[in-house]
């Protein structure tokens, strides 16, 4: 089996066994959407212009909450050293972790899109919107997974992570919101937001691939 | 072509952190099959030296060759030839012993994985507990599992950092049997148990403040005595 597939399989297996992190994130997201649905006047207001913002802030916090712990297990038991000793490239370790996070987060996002469709009575499970969500998710998970390697101490990481991640994610969030609006047939002008989102996803993935070996180097 | 008899060879291996030399120009060579004790007080650089030889820590200067592979130029193929046992076990506690070894066997692309894993788990006395999550096993069992992980891919060279940590007398017996007295494996082991080391080692490297201050070879059990060369 390809080493990267081995890593993904192991990470998915561990994610499934220790579901508490992702289940907490999912619970938080569902409650957020429920609160939004009560906050908006569903009868009188056209919610379509608001929904992209609602969705992306929810996705962002779920992703940041869950992916900030990406390498926690490896740090806690020094398994990262065992992985670095194996005859695989560090980029395979990084990509394996990114893909695991993307798969886990996309599963949650699909649940959230389904829930939003029901709560806000708007069709959100469209191919165009799902494409935007997939590209955006790859973009910000690539970045947050890289940043989760910073600081070997949990305290340092929990302080550094939001300070570094959130400002870097602003361009992605703007592009994600605007591209989602376009996918929902909302007027957004002529800017190619999906292209910007794609460029950000490529940039963050490439940065992760280049910087991860340096981040874990001693 | 004559096969090299040297397993580990370093030349001026140096590590600096913020300008401070933790290892200063370590130069030595260890023959194949030798068992060498790496001794020295706390903070003398034993773990750093082992970290550099295992390719986990990048040297600031110098070069090393392990099993014919250059440390700096060829570290990925070098990793197939070395096994590392540290004082922390480096295992996934949420996985069982069998799953841990299966995961690493796949990473190392080992042939006949299940039989190799079974052999090792039986050898270290964990076969009965192969399906239990590692987190419920004792510290000593973790170290036994780490020993099995280090041996899994049949490395030519083993780098051990205080390998006795957490092991009971039976675990230490297994360590001796599987590693320290195994004829084909080259061992470099950091230890504070100097008296015990004299029972298994062919030679001694003594580090003090990052410098090799003593390199001695004891009479070998083989025909070709191991030779340790200190810098001139």
Shape descriptor of chain A? globular
Extract low-pLDDT stretches of chain A: none
What's the domain count of chain B? 2
Output the strand order for the largest sheet of chain B: 6-7-8-3-9-10
Write the layout of secondary structure elements.
The complex is a heterodimer of chains A (218) and B (232).
Chain A: H1 3-17, H2 20-39, H3 51-67, H4 72-76, H5 79-85, H6 90-120, H7 127-147, H8 154-183, H9 193-215
Chain B: E1 6-17, E2 20-31, E3 35-39, H1 46-53, E4 61-66, E5 69-70, H2 75-78, E6 82-85, H3 97-107, H4 113-123, H5 139-151, E7 157-161, H6 169-180, E8 186-190, H7 194-200, E9 203-208, E10 211-217
Parallel strand pairs in B: 3-8, 3-9, 6-7, 7-8
Antiparallel strand pairs in B: 1-2, 1-4, 4-5, 9-10
Question: What does this protein look like?
Answer:
The complex is a heterodimer of chains A (218) and B (232). In chain A, α3 (51-67) runs antiparallel to α8 and α7 (127-147) packs parallel to α9 (193-215). Chain A is an all-alpha fold. Chain A is built from 9 helices and no strands. Helix content of chain A is 78%, strand content 0%. Chain A has one domain (3-36, 45-215). Chain A is globular, with a radius of gyration of 18 Å. Chain B is an alpha/beta fold and 232 residues long. Chain B has helices at residues 46-53, 75-78, 97-107, 113-123, 139-151, 169-180, 194-200, and strands spanning 6-17, 20-31, 35-39, 61-66, 69-70, 82-85, 157-161, 186-190, 203-208, 211-217. A 6-stranded mixed beta sheet of chain B has the order 6-7-8-3-9-10, with helices on both faces. In chain B, strands 2-1-4-5 form a 4-stranded antiparallel beta sheet. In chain B, α6 (169-180) links the parallel β7 (157-161) and β8. In chain B, α3 crosses α4 and α5 (139-151) runs parallel beside α6. The longest helix of chain B is centred in the middle third of the chain and has 13 residues, at 139-151.
Can you give me a brief rundown of this structure?
With 218 residues, chain A is mainly α. Chain A has helices at residues 3-17, 20-39, 51-67, 72-76, 79-85, 90-120, 127-147, 154-183, 193-215.
């Amino acid at each position: 089996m390809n080493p990267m597939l081995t890593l993904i399989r192991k990470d998915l297996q561990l994610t499934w066994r220790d579901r508490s992190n992702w289940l907490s994130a999912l619970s938080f997201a569902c409650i957020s959407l429920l609160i939004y649905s009560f906050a908006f006047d569903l009868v009188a207001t056209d919610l379509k212009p608001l929904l992209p913002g609602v969705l992306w802030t929810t996705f962002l916090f779920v992703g940041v909450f869950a992916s900030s712990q990406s390498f926690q297990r490896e740090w806690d038991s020094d398994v990262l050293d065992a992985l670095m000793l194996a005859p695989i490239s560090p980029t395979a370790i990084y990509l394996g972790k990114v893909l695991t996070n993307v798969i886990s987060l996309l599963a949650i996002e699909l649940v959230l899109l389904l829930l939003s469709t029901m709560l806000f009575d708007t069709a959100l499970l469209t191919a165009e919107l799902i494409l935007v969500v997939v590209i955006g998710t790859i973009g910000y998970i690539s970045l947050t997974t890289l940043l989760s390697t910073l600081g070997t101490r949990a305290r340092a990481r929990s302080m550094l992570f939001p300070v570094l991640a959130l400002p870097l994610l602003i361009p992605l969030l703007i592009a994600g919101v605007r591209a989602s609006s376009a996918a929902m047939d909302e007027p957004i002008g002529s800017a190619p937001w999906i292209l910007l989102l794609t460029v950000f996803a490529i940039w963050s993935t490439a940065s992760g691939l280049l910087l991860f070996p340096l981040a874990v180097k001693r | 072509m004559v096969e090299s008899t040297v397993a580990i060879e370093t030349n001026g291996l140096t590590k600096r952190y913020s300008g401070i030399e933790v290892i200063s120009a370590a130069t030595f060579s260890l023959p194949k099959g030798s068992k060498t004790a790496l001794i020295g007080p706390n903070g003398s650089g034993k773990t750093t030296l082992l970290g550099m030889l295992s390719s986990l820590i990048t040297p600031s200067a110098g070069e090393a060759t392990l099993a014919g592979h250059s440390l700096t130029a060829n570290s990925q193929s070098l990793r197939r030839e070395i096994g590392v046992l540290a004082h922390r076990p480096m295992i996934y506690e949420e996985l069982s012993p069998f799953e841990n070894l299966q995961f690493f066997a796949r990473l190392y692309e080992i042939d006949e994985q299940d039989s190799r894993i079974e052999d090792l788990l039986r050898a270290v006395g964990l076969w009965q507990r192969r399906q239990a999550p590692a987190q419920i096993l004792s510290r000593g069992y973790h170290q036994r599992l780490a020993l099995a992980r280090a041996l899994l891919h049949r490395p030519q060279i083993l780098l051990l950092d205080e390998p006795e940590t957490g092991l009971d007398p039976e675990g230490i017996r297994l360590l001796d049997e599987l590693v320290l007295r195994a004829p084909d494996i080259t061992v470099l082991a950091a230890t504070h148990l100097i008296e015990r080391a004299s029972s298994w080692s062919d030679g001694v490297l003594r580090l003090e403040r990052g410098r090799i201050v003593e390199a001695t070879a004891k009479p070998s059990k083989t025909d070709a005595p191991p030779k340790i060369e200190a810098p001139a």
